[in-house]
């Protein structure tokens, strides 16, 4: 019977902290999360719930919501899918401004005060942070968000110069999270207004050199509930998690309608 | 990590818009204010068709000292609405307008302040009997 010999591992080339399980290296702090709740099965009116949580410097508002939902109150309801700023599911009003919960780091907010989280405005709240997005997508569908090209399909792709592609590059970034549309004071009071997101997506095709239905889209947006409702409050440009210059896109559509009719 | 409290939700918080939103709020309020002034102005001027005495009586009421501040408020509203109106035209028609909307708002506020300082000084001087 031979005795097992323990081979000495070679010294690590990476310096590790004396004590450290990984998470210990990240600073932790207490935050108070204040969420505006609504559940028609529990109460007629909305109410605020507050929780104090221990979170880390790498955590986002979404992580705090997860912590509440998974560890404290499973009835807290919100949408999220990819949780990495791509799917556009978790737009909500954080400290009074529309933001994606998955892109807002807690350490960037003032943690000395409660962090308020509310559903986005202007769309009917169904439960807690979930709103009915149907009116939003209805406007989106009306501007025909797809390529319309009447010429015969080529055997390869439809080529476009880099300059022509650049013309609408900014508005291709939209993820349809509704942060812009639900930050617009005009949309809050006039639900018929197309809203910034629909106009941004119309812009994406109106200025696409391969598209043939620009005139039809301009006609749709020349409606009294179209681009002329925009009051240039710039809330949409500020709210966009993708950094789209939304008001600029709306202004370009306004100018296109005017120059077309001249 | 315990639930601390539940409170009534009320109407929720006010949306925290920035310069663009508040300039729009200011434009709206001054616009509605100017509309009501014009309405009263048309009515009191049309009184001259009813009777010159009635017209004189109403116009005489405007000599009340409190109207001095009313007039400063009116001119303040008109000056802001006018300068900000030019800013909105530039936002809509100047290609770079949307990128410089904040700078233009600061310019509007500086112009408003300079105009109002000059107007208020002159207006108060006349009211207090100076020339």
Description:
The complex is a heterodimer of chains A (262) and B (131). Chain A has 262 residues and is α+β, with helices and mostly antiparallel strands. Chain A folds into 2 domains: 26-131, Roll (Ubiquitin-like (UB roll)); 134-147 and 162-261, Fumarate Reductase Iron-sulfur Protein, Chain B, domain 2. Chain A is 27% helix and 14% strand. In chain A, the strands form 2 sheets. In chain A, strands 2-1-5-3-4 form a 5-stranded mixed sheet, with helices on one face. In chain A, strand 3 and strand 4 form a beta hairpin. In chain A, helix 5 runs antiparallel to helix 6, helix 5 crosses helix 8 and helix 6 (214-221) packs across helix 8. In chain A, 41% of the residues are buried. Chain B is built from 4 helices and 1 strand; from the N terminus they run E-H-H-H-H. With 131 residues, chain B is mostly helical. Chain B has a single domain (19-127), classed as 3 helical TM bundles of succinate and fumarate reductases (Up-down Bundle). The model of chain B has no long low-confidence stretch (mean pLDDT 91). Helices cover 74% and strands 5% of the residues of chain B. Chains A and B meet through strand 1, strand 2, helix 1, helix 7 and helix 8 of A and strand 1, helix 1 and helix 3 of B. Strand 2 of chain A pairs antiparallel with strand 1 (3-8) of chain B, so a sheet runs across the interface.
Keywords:
heterodimer; A: 262 residues; alpha+beta; Ubiquitin-like (UB roll); Fumarate Reductase Iron-sulfur Protein, Chain B, domain 2; 2 domains; five-stranded mixed beta sheet; 8 helices; B: 131 residues; 3 helical TM bundles of succinate and fumarate reductases; 4 helices; 5% strand; extended; oxidoreductase (chain A); metal-binding (chain A); electron transfer activity (chain A); 2Fe-2S (chain A)
Summarize the structure in short.
Chain A has helices at residues 61-72, 134-142, 162-166, 185-189, 196-206, 214-221, 235-239, 246-261; strands at 28-37, 47-56, 91-94, 97-100, 115-118, 125-127, 130-131. Chain A is of the alpha+beta class and 262 residues long.
């Amino acid at each position: 019977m031979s005795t097992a010999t323990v081979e000495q591992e070679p010294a690590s080339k990476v310096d590790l902290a004396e004590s450290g399980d990984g998470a210990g290296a990240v600073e932790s702090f207490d935050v108070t999360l204040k969420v505006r709740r609504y559940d028609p099965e529990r109460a007629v009116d909305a109410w605020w719930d507050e929780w104090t949580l221990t979170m880390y410097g790498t955590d986002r508002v979404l992580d705090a919501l997860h912590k509440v939902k998974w560890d404290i109150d499973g009835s807290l309801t919100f949408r999220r899918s990819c949780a990495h700023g791509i799917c556009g599911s978790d737009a909500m009003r954080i400290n009074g401004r529309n933001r994606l919960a998955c892109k807002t780091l807690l350490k960037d907010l003032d943690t000395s005060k409660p962090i308020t989280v509310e559903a986005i405005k202007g769309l009917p709240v169904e439960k807690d942070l979930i709103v009915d997005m149907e009116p939003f997508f209805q406007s989106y569908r009306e501007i025909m968000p797809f390529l319309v090209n009447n010429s015969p399909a080529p055997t390869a792709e439809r080529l476009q110069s880099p300059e022509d592609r650049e013309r609408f590059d900014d508005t291709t970034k939209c993820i349809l999270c509704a942060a812009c549309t639900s930050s617009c004071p005009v949309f809050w009071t006039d639900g018929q207004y197309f809203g910034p997101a629909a106009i941004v997506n119309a812009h994406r095709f109106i200025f696409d050199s391969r598209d043939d239905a620009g005139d039809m889209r301009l006609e749709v947006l020349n409606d009294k509930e179209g681009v002329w409702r925009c009051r240039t409050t710039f809330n949409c440009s500020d709210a966009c998690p993708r950094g789209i210059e939304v008001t600029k896109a709306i202004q370009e559509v306004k100018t296109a309608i005017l120059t077309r009719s001249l | 990590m315990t639930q601390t409290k539940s409170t009534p939700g009320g109407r929720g918080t006010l949306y925290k818009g920035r310069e663009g939103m508040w300039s729009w709020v200011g434009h709206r309020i001054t616009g509605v204010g100017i509309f009501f002034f014009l309405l009263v102005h048309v009515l009191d001027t049309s009184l001259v068709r009813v009777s010159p005495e009635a017209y004189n009586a109403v116009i005489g009421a405007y000599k009340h000292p409190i109207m001095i501040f009313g007039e400063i408020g009116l001119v303040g509203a008109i000056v802001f609405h006018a300068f900000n109106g030019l800013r909105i035209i530039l936002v809509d028609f100047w290609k770079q307008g949307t990128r410089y909307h904040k700078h233009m708002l600061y310019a509007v506020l500086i112009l408003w302040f300079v105009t109002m300082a000059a107007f208020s000084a002159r207006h108060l001087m006349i009211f207090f009997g100076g020339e």
